[in-house]
Amino acid sequence: MAKKYISLRGKFSLAPIVEGVVGAMRELGNIPDFTLEITADKIEHTESMSGDDTTDLVLYNTTAVSFSGTLEQVDADNLAYILSGKNVAVATKTVADLDLGAVTKGQKIKLDGFNLTVPTVTDGASTPVPIESTKYKLDAIYGTIEFLDDLPKVVIGYTTGAVTHTTIASDFGAEYALFFEGIDKISKDKVFLALHRTIKSPDSSFGLIHEEFGSYEISGDALGDLTKDKDGALGLYGYYTQIPKAV
To answer: Which of 58, 59, 75, 234 is disulfide-compatible with 43, CB 3.0–4.6 A?
Structure first.
C-alpha cells in the first residue's frame, strides 16, 4: 500500500458576513500554526444481558467545530480582530483655551489627541502671557504635557492630528467565512478548506512588551450553515478539498 503523508503550509483569509452575504476575502498574513477541533456529546448505551455490561450503541448527540491559531501580522484589520474591536477614524480638531487650573511640579496630563501642532501654553490672564517653555515639557506625539514647576493657572490650546483608534472588546459576534489555500510540501498537491460561518472567541491576550517578534493567539467556533446540504459536498460547517493536479 502506498504511503500518504502530508505536511501543510498555506494562506488564511477571512471574509465578513453581513446580512448573510459573504464579502471580499482578506488575507491574514503569516500564521505559523492553526488547528481545527471537532467535538461531540457522546451518549453510550450499555447492554445488561451478557454479564459484561458492554457498550453496544453510541449516539453522538451534538457536534461542534472550533479553531485556534496564531497571528503574526498586526495590521489595522488584524488588530481589530485580535482585540474584538473596531477601527474608528478620529479627525483632526482644534482645542482652544483648555483650562487646566493650578498645576504642580511633576504633574503629567494626557491631552485629548496625538501629533499636536500649534500649541499655546499661557497663564490664562485676561491678556494671556505665554508660559516659559522651561516650565513644562510637551510631548506632541503622545499628546502629554508635564510641568516642571508649580503654576497657579495654565490654559492650553492645540490642534490634533488625524489618527485611527482600535477599540477594545467592543465588537463581539461578528461573523466571517474562513478560507485556507494550502499546499502539501510532500506531494506539492494543493488543498483548500472553507468554514462557512465562524465567530471569534472574545477570550484573548495582547502582549505589549516583546523580547522577540510579537504573535497573538486567536480561537473561535465554526457555526452550522443550514442553507448548506449536510449530505452534499459542502457540509454544514464547511469542507476540505484536495485539489488534483490538472491533466
So the answer is: 59
